[in-house]
Design a protein that fits this description.
The structure holds 2 protein chains of 2 kinds. Chain A is mainly alpha-helical. Chain A has helices at residues 2-27, 36-40. Chain B is 45% helix and 19% strand. Chain B has a 7-stranded mixed β-sheet, with helices on both faces. In chain B, strands 6-5-7-13-8-11 form a 6-stranded antiparallel β-sheet, with no helix packed on it. In chain B, a hairpin with a 2-residue loop joins strand 20 (558-564) and strand 21. The chains are: A mainly alpha, B alpha+beta. At the A-B interface, helix 1 and helix 2 of A face helix 4, helix 8 and helix 9 of B. Chain A: It holds the Pfam family FixS.
């Protein structure tokens, strides 16, 4: 039975990882602007002086 | 032009990105327009972060409108090498610029932006307060609640499904204690908004709906903890975390904010941050609050007059459309008073201030005492919730007495489970989800309400007050009708060509009816401020202007007289056109109506006809009279809805129970109000109000449904037999069915009342 407890711990850790991923994405401002990032990635950089 | 500038810097694929890159033009920037940005106090206010290496500053740029704007702005470093990085937030129309202080200056950056057509909007408001940081706390709370709820639910399943054959003792203990641990973040962190709101209510002696909810959360938590610690059971952790999650979701939905729309602008958002003061022959940029009575201000072409003053130098043609909604400019002579809020249209002028900015006629409206005490009516949800709570408490008391007589050991489980199962969470859920849906349906139809409170106050409207110019009539659209001899096609086109050379609204209106030929060149064009204009189009010499300018007889109303080759041909009569569907809209409103117009009463018979015999029509109303009239209506016990647009309505909009300001395009600035409506949607007003009323019914229906669940739960609870499993079935079942029901009912009401020709917001 103790293997279930082990699995439980593992699954909780995975779930916690997703929780922190969510918190990070909110903190990062990913939900602030839903237009610019989607369009920004479509622009080509003709010159590479970045 | 812009193209040349872009070409120089290899930004040509700007034009390949979007077939219609929009209206951005290279705008000539007046040389010292942004000189004020070199003033240290102003500079310091605008800049967010500064060190030797870089300076961070965020600009609000109303012109951002397409993906090309995004691209162009984010490549600003190719135009100005001192710029390190630009980050555009499209939905807020903001650009965050990072530049290197040694290589460029704030002023240069702003000038570059302005020259490519993205002039940052810098107003007095920027000087006064820093924007509060975005509050993302509720999203963290929501995330934590979701995480804990999902895990607790999964960990509870073994207990529920094991039935009579009890599961392994240690295993069960591990699961229970894990649940207890997982419920702690929800109890102490996620549920905080409810504690805060309940505490605020209690402090003001008002029992709002969050009080019984907090009570229920508290009882559920204590009961569950004691159950687990004493080994009596698994507790109701899943029900508790689930309800917190659902209620938080509702709250997020209801408190949705519209990025890029501001509901609380006062005059500071309209006024420039600095103004040029002429002192000892020198022009000095001065922060607006530092302007003193007796200072001479230099107002440039297209600038806003920030304080009441007397015209001392130059010609004045003032556009008061900001203030009154009236687009026809007014010419002022030397020595006349010019009120704050007008925009100078013709060249530069100097005015001697007679009042400070904050004391000026227009701005003083905001400082009046009456404005502050707009009473906040308690939502019917709180009253309903309160009655509900009394009933629950009564049932709990009866149960206590009953079990006190028959079996005292059952008092604790029975009473706690009553409080667990019968919390008015469902009512709160019904309300917040319905409000959220209604706000979204309205926003699909371009009515953006400030908050859920506005839905209720709109539904409770008993009296509607309209402004005329800019509200019932289109703001810029004035129709010109020709009175005079018949014009040939060539003459008409020539008039159109000459008229279109000017920015004056009257000539624009004339050009609009005459049509503008694409290839007619206008030669020797001159414009005489406030008088008229003339020019040659082909073989025809056209003069347009006032009676004095053309030598015609003065007539009634706004007229544009026309001379063709020096001979008088006739005049155009300008009149405002009423918005489409206004007539039907006014007839469909089953409320008493008032018109408060700042204008003359020329249209009185027409308006009387449209608004009906019972309507109260008032003309030549000053802004403070509008405000006073709203107050007097409210003193008669009326729930006033005010619909207006200009700054002159701002006082009335703020004072009324619901103030809705109209906007012709969402970039425009609207005065502080409870809602912003796209002007073309005004004809839908009756449907909007009906939808708000329907949303109240949706809340009541959903609440009635949830009461059925409550009664089922109470049936078990009073017997002290509410098992965690029953609670775990009832809670999500009632929550989810309410969420679905509110969604279906509001969408149905929205479709029925507003039709489905809505365009989702981009």
């Amino acid at each position: 039975m103790s293997v279930i407890i082990l699995l439980l711990g593992a699954s909780l850790i995975v779930a916690l990882f997703f929780l922190f991923a969510f918190i990070w994405s909110v903190k990062d401002g990913q939900y602030e602007d839903d237009f610019s990032p989607a369009h920004r990635m479509l622009f080509d950089d003709k010159t590479d002086n970045e | 032009m812009v193209y040349e500038l872009l070409n120089e810097h290899g930004l040509c694929n700007y034009y390949t990105l979007n077939a219609r890159p929009g209206t951005a033009q290279r705008v000539p920037v007046r040389q010292h327009k942004f000189a004020f940005l070199e003033e240290e106090p102003i500079r310091r206010r605008l800049i967010q972060y500064e060190d030797d290496q870089q300076v961070h500053v965020t600009f609000y740029i109303p012109n951002i409108h397409c993906s090309s704007c995004l691209w162009l702005l984010e490549n600003l470093h190719k135009v100005d090498a001192g710029v390190q990085q630009v980050n555009v937030n499209f939905s807020k129309k903001e650009a965050r610029v990072i530049f290197i202080p040694g290589q460029t200056t704030l002023r240069k950056v702003v000038e570059t932006l302005a020259s490519i057509g993205y002039e940052p909007y810098i107003s007095l408001q920027d000087l006064q307060k820093k924007k509060p940081p975005v509050n993302r706390r509720i999203f963290y709370q929501l995330g934590v609640a979701g995480f804990c709820f999902a895990n607790i639910m999964l960990l509870s399943f073994p207990e529920y499904f094991s039935g009579e054959h009890h599961m392994d003792g240690t295993m069960s203990l591990v699961f229970r204690y894990l649940n207890l641990a997982l419920s702690l973040p929800v109890f102490f962190f996620s549920a905080q908004p409810f504690y805060a709101s309940a505490w605020k209510g209690l402090k003001h002696g008002f029992l709002n709906i969050d009080v019984p909810i907090v009570l229920a959360i508290l009882v559920t938590f204590v009961r569950s903890v004691t159950d687990v610690l004493t080994g009596a059971g698994a507790g109701y952790f899943d029900s508790m975390t689930g309800i917190v999650l659902f209620m938080l979701t509702g709250r997020v939905l209801q408190d949705k904010t519209y990025k890029g729309l501001a509901f609380d602008r006062d005059y500071t958002a309209y006024f420039p941050i600095a103004v040029t003061v002429v002192k000892d022959q020198q022009e000095i940029p001065v922060q607006l609050p530092d302007v003193k009575t007796g200072d001479t201000l230099l107002i440039h072409h297209q600038e806003l007059v920030p304080a009441d003053g007397i015209l001392v130098k130059g010609k004045a043609l003032i556009d008061y459309s900001f203030v009154t909604g009236e687009s026809a400019p007014v010419a002022k002579q030397m020595g006349e008073i010019i009120y704050a809020g007008g925009r100078q249209l013709e060249g530069n002028m100097e005015i001697l201030t007679i009042k400070e900015v904050a004391q000026s006629y227009l701005t003083s409206l905001w400082n009046r005492d009456e404005m502050q005490n707009k009473e906040q009516k308690a939502s019917f949800i709180h009253l309903l919730g309160r009655n509900f709570t009394w009933i629950v408490l009564f049932i709990a008391a009866v149960t206590t007495i009953y079990w006190g007589i028959y079996d005292t050991s059952k008092i604790w489980p029975a009473v706690t489970s009553i409080l667990i199962v019968a919390c008015p969470c469902a009512l709160l859920l019904a309300a917040s989800f319905t409000n959220g849906h209604t706000l979204r349906i309205l926003s699909r139809h371009r009515l953006y309400l400030r908050n859920a409170q506005a839905i209720e106050s709109l539904a409770g409207t008993t009296h509607i007050v309209f402004d005329k110019t800019g509200t019932l009539t289109g703001k810029a659209r004035s129709a010109a009708t020709w009175h005079g001899r018949a014009l040939t096609v060539d003459e008409q086109l020539a008039i159109g060509a000459v008229g279109s050379q000017s920015q004056h609204p009257a000539s624009r209106a004339v050009a609009a009816v005459c049509g503008k030929p694409a290839n007619t060149e206008v030669l020797r064009f001159t414009e005489d401020t406030g008088q008229g204009l003339q020019g040659w189009a082909g073989q025809l010499h056209i003069q347009l202007g006032s009676a004095a300018y053309t030598g015609a007889k003065e007539g009634e109303g706004s007229q544009v007289h026309v001379n063709v080759n020096g001979d008088y041909a006739g005049y155009f009569l300008l009149s405002h056109t009423y918005r489409e569907g206004i007539d039907d809209m006014l007839h469909a409103l089953p409320y008493s109506l008032t018109l408060l117009s700042g204008d003359h009463d020329g249209d009185a018979p027409l308006l009387r006809n449209m608004m009906g015999a019972g309507a109260d029509l008032r003309f030549r109303q000053q802004p403070h009279q509008k405000l006073d009239h709203i107050i007097s209506l409210q003193e008669q016990g009326k729930q006033v809805l005010m619909i207006g647009d200009g700054l002159n309505d701002a006082g009335a909009l703020k004072q009324s129970n619901t103030g809705i300001s109209l906007t012709e395009n969402s970039n425009n600035f609207t005065p502080a109000s409870d809602g912003i409506m796209e002007a073309a949607q005004l004809r839908r007003l009756p449907a909007f109000i009906r939808l708000c009323k329907a949303s109240k019914r949706v809340i009541l229906i959903s609440f009635a449904v949830s009461v059925l669940y409550n009664i089922t739960g109470l049936f078990f609870a009073v017997q002290g037999k509410l098992s965690p499993l029953t609670a775990a079935i009832l809670m999500p079942a009632s929550s989810i069915s309410i969420v679905l029901l509110t969604w279906a009912l509001s969408e149905w009401a929205g479709n029925r009342l507003l039709g489905d020709d809505s365009h989702p917001r981009a």
